[in-house]
Specification:
Helix content is 20%, strand content 17%. Helix 2 runs antiparallel to helix 10. The strands form six sheets. Strands 2-9-8-5 form a four-stranded mixed β-sheet, covered by helices on one side. The chain folds into two domains: 166 residues, Immunoglobulin-like (Sandwich), CATH 2.60.40.1080; 144 residues, no CATH class. The relative contact order is 0.12. By secondary structure, it is an alpha+beta fold. The structure holds heme C (2 copies).
């Protein structure tokens, strides 16, 4: 385990006792937020950290610095003393909830962004993205999965590692999936708004409320195993997930949706409707309306107690989340956000023909199988936690979101 992880896990241990993380759909449970949660100041300068109590009330807070040789704190005002990193912890007097901010002190005022000071702490610190969040580097700490078991052969804690992307060749470190939207790893045409890392930080896996459980072994990612009763697909009850290791032979919910999408693409007619038959799992008379749609319109289809998608996505109107209608064939073809987010591919223009269908990048596939990172982020229907905590932009001297700071760093050339 890297050394900086040991420090932050000690802090985590201390924090768990006092800090009740947000729980449930809307983050019920008292917790503190700080703004900025990450800051960098020059020795001799100060930065003011604001704190607020969520789902509770505190009139007073106590502040403490993990290392007063590096930074001191008084009432939220942090003063840089000497080069290094200090954790500034704050505790609500009545709620007992507590959290911390990460402050790095530099010798002089900064004019550039840097991976080490601005980005690495977001990946290597516990509790950064939300209270109770694990550091990314608990699971992604080396470009090696075989012997070191680092998930997706990914190393998010070092500059070289993060630039190699996900699932690179473990011997050559080449051919990783780019995290920052660049064409290939090593290229510098970063495209943060379409970057894979950005969507993993912001996009919740669906359905939510109550959330999909995160399984580190990934085995529930294809949805429940299926059986066919009177020629129709339904989850085996009680729900079980054994398909991950043998997806071609164990029918599963995601495989069913994929088979329908492939048949639709092959057919060449976007308006064929929901009653056109397709085959999957040895059955030839499956249809969108009979077999696929219930996975979106009924509850308890993905896990016990899973919410029906149409509770939130029921029409192409503003009141329905993302103006998305998952209740009918036409809604699936039309997509989200006024058609600009087709669910059957990952582009940002309305679906024009079956040629444009692309299961691999499809929004529906990603939302059903990809967990938001770090796992177990509280799902806020308001979406207000999607861009991560506030952080300090050391170049422009203002507060921005964590996700936006990564974008600023990339725009400035993504320096070490
Ligand atoms: C507890 C372990 C754990 C932690 C902590 C964690 N991840 Fe992951 N991560 C996984 C697993 C397992 C997967 C694959 C399964 C999934 O997506 O549900 C994954 C997948 C990913 C992927 C997709 C890789 C690919 O090839 O598609 C990215 C990117 C990612 N994580 C980034 C992060 C970031 C950034 C953080 C921290 C903010 C983080 N992860 C924290 C376990 C973790
Ligand atoms: C409790 C409400 C709720 C439920 C239930 C729900 N969603 Fe969502 N969905 C949201 C919210 C809120 C967002 C946007 C915020 C986010 O991603 O965290 C969203 C985003 C999405 C998006 C992205 C849309 C876009 O414009 O990019 C897709 C696709 C999606 N959901 C599919 C589903 C599917 C499929 C199900 C059921 C299996 C489902 N959702 C269940 C609330 C919900």
């Amino acid at each position: 385990m890297p050394k900086n992880k040991i420090v932050s896990c000690l802090l985590l241990g201390l924090m768990y006792m006092a800090c009740e993380g947000p729980a449930g759909t809307d983050g019920a449970g008292t917790y503190l937020t700080v703004s900025p949660a990450l800051a960098s100041v020059a020795a001799g300068s100060t930065v003011l950290i604001a704190v607020s109590t969520q789902n509770g009330e505190d009139n007073d807070y106590t502040w403490e610095s993990s290392d007063t040789d590096i930074a001191t704190v008084s009432n939220g005002t942090v003063t840089g003393i000497s080069e290094g990193t200090a954790f500034i912890s704050v505790k609500g007097q009545s709620s007992g909830a507590n959290t911390n901010a990460i402050v790095t002190v530099t010798n002089s005022t900064r004019s550039d962004y840097s991976f080490a000071l601005d980005i690495a702490p977001m990946m290597t610190s516990d509790n950064f993205w939300f209270p109770g969040a694990d550091a990314c580097t608990w699971c992604h700490y080396a470009n090696n999965e075989e012997e070191l078991h680092s998930k997706h052969v990914m190393d998010l804690g070092t500059y070289e590692g993060i630039m190699r992307g996900a699932d690179p060749d473990p011997d050559t470190y080449e051919d990783g999936h780019p995290l920052f939207g660049e064409t290939e790893t090593g290229d510098t045409d970063y495209d943060w708004s379409n970057a894979m890392l950005k969507s993993r930080l912001r996009n919740n896996r669906m359905p939510q409320a109550p959330a999909w459980e995160f399984w580190r072994d990934e085995s529930n990612r294809l949805g429940p195993d299926l059986e066919f009763v009177d020629g129709h697909a339904q989850p085996i009850r009680p729900i079980q997930y054994t398909s991950w290791d043998d997806p071609d032979n164990v029918p599963n919910a995601l495989g069913l949706v994929e088979a329908w999408v492939a048949d639709l693409k092959d057919g060449g007619d976007l308006n064929v409707g929901g009653d056109d038959p397709f085959s999957y799992g040895g059955e030839d008379n499956l249809t969108f309306n009979n077999d696929v749609l219930p996975f979106f319109t009924d509850g308890s289809m993905w896990f016990d107690g899973s919410t029906s998608c149409v509770e939130c996505h029921w029409g192409n109107i503003e009141e329905s989340y993302h103006l998305m209608d998952l209740s009918s064939y036409d809604g699936f073809i039309y997509g989200a956000d006024g058609g600009e987010h087709p669910v059957l591919n990952g582009t940002k223009t309305a679906l024009g023909s079956t040629d444009e269908i692309d299961w691999g990048s499809s929004r529906i596939k990603k939302r059903l199988r990809d967990n938001r990172m770090p796992p177990d982020a509280p799902f806020l229907l308001s979406e207000e936690n999607r861009d991560g905590p506030d952080v300090w932009d050391p170049v422009n001297g203002e507060i921005v979101t964590a996700v936006d700071l990564i974008g600023l760093w990339l725009e400035a050339g993504a320096s070490e």
